[in-house]
Write a structure and sequence with these properties.
- The chain is α+β, with helices and mostly antiparallel strands.
- It is built from 8 helices and 10 strands.
- A 6-stranded antiparallel sheet has the order 1-2-6-5-4-3, with helices on one face.
- Helix 3 crosses helix 4 (140-148) and helix 5 (224-234) packs across helix 8.
- The longest helix is centred in the first third of the chain and has 20 residues, at 83-102.
- The structure holds iron/sulfur cluster (SF4).
- Iron/sulfur cluster (SF4) binds next to helix 4.
- Iron/sulfur cluster is lined by residues 127-128, 130-135, 137, 140, 143, 157, 159.
- Keywords: 4Fe-4S, DNA-binding, Iron, Iron-sulfur, Metal-binding, Transcription, Transcription regulation.
- Residues 115-178 form the 4Fe-4S domain.
- GO terms for molecular function: 4 iron, 4 sulfur cluster binding; DNA binding; metal ion binding.
């Protein structure tokens, strides 16, 4: 049996407002006798509307009208009419989880992470808001709406900052070449994934290479104009000064700087200057 028991059950009155007429006022917290996180992808695949998260690993779902929040070694469940109902439900929940575990080979695990809905205004705040139209939309607002509706991809806006984290699911293949299981890696921004590569530039002259933390060769495809801008940045020039020196608009300079930062995986100008020196751009 996967989960053989539970302990440290704490049954408490849930925080129901005094003006609400409701007899479902109890909730429970308890600990599993083992780490159950390997079940989360199966719950995610089998339970409609399960909300799986990886940081911290947990999943939330409704089972028999009870809200369940499961962490690797503990769980919270609510609401109930009384303490007896709490205990009956915990037994029921553990039976449900053990049954899922027993049936796991016939189930399809899902590693899809639940994302809280995001508003158009929140997306807009992350965009450069210069209406440059490089994404094919007339305004950043139009792009934000399309992104919210799933009709656009973040990659279409070259000025959009790199994501803070990247989440990648890798397959584990058996001897017969079929996928036996999967594992996920969430890496911080600036830590390129092992499979991350960039296409070489057309002239092949501006490519700079280095190895990432996995020992994989990473190629940079700075354009000649981006190298010019990077040289100016490395010399300590401000955006208005670069604009004047290269005879391009401040907006274009800003756009180049963002592209450069994304390509060489740095977050500010001092890091870019160091990178330029190390890679003999200056
Ligand atoms: S490419 Fe980005 S900055 Fe330009 S209009 Fe589209 S969303 Fe706005």
């Amino acid at each position: 049996m996967f989960i053989q028991g539970y302990s440290e059950v704490s049954v408490k009155r849930a925080g129901v407002r005094s003006d609400v007429v409701c007899d479902l006022k109890w909730g429970a917290h308890f600990k599993f006798n083992r780490d159950i996180r390997e079940l989360f992808p199966y719950i995610n695949g089998a339970v409609p509307d399960a909300r799986y998260q990886v940081r911290p690993p947990h999943t939330r779902f409704v089972h028999e009208n009870v809200q369940c929040s499961l962490y690797p070694k503990e769980a919270m469940v609510a609401p109930f009419r009384g303490q007896r109902q709490c205990f009956l439900f915990i037994e029921n929940l553990i039976r449900f989880l053990n049954d899922l575990y027993d049936r796991r080979k016939s189930l399809s695990p899902s590693h899809k992470v639940y994302r809280e809905p995001v508003s158009v205004m929140d997306i807009l705040k992350a965009l450069p808001r210069n209406n440059c139209r490089e994404c094919g939309r007339k305004t950043c607002m139009a792009f934000a709406v399309a992104l919210r509706e799933g009709e656009a991809s973040p990659a279409q806006c070259p000025g959009l900052a790199k994501p803070i984290t990247t989440y990648t699911v890798f397959p584990v293949l058996g001897e017969d070449g079929t996928v036996k299981s999967t594992f996920a890696i969430e890496s911080e921004a600036g830590e390129p994934r092992a499979d991350e590569t960039r296409a070489p530039s057309a002239d092949g002259k501006s490519d700079k290479t280095r190895r990432d933390r996995f020992g994989i060769r990473i190629q940079y495809d700075l354009t000649p104009r981006e190298i010019e801008v990077l040289r100016c940045v490395a010399e300590g020039a401000t955006n208005p000064e670069i604009s004047e020196r290269l005879n391009i608009s401040p907006h274009t300079v800003k756009s180049h700087v963002i592209h450069i930062f994304n390509k060489i995986n740095v977050n500010h100008r001092a890091q870019a200057a160091v990178w330029a020196a190390k890679n003999q751009v200056v």
